[in-house]
What we know:
This protein is mostly beta strands. Helices cover 0% and strands 55% of the residues.
Amino acid sequence: MRLIKINESFSQVGELTDCFYSFFFMEEHLYSVHRRHQLFSYDDWPKNESDTISQIILTKYQGNDTKKIVSEEILCSGNDPRVVSDGKKAYVVSQGALHSKTPYLLTFLPEKRTFSVTLGS
Length: 121
């Protein structure tokens, strides 16, 4: 396992922030998925799904350099992405966004197909 520190910053309530990065290789390129969301106060959570911005972002990098972004796109709305990859394909699991009726999402890469899933025991 390798730890990567991209940058360190502070955000104010109401600002968009990027967090919860998961890095992986696919088709010989370095990628990441992460959460981009609008910060809200711990005592004033959004009341409706439409008041919440929480996106899962797919980023492709040039070589292994996390400072050189080739592309960035929204995969879906959600929280806390996790990823597994065999180097050719990747599978991203994320929780549904706050107030969403979708508990979990599964995204297949490189196809970029997202499905609602239920995880059970």
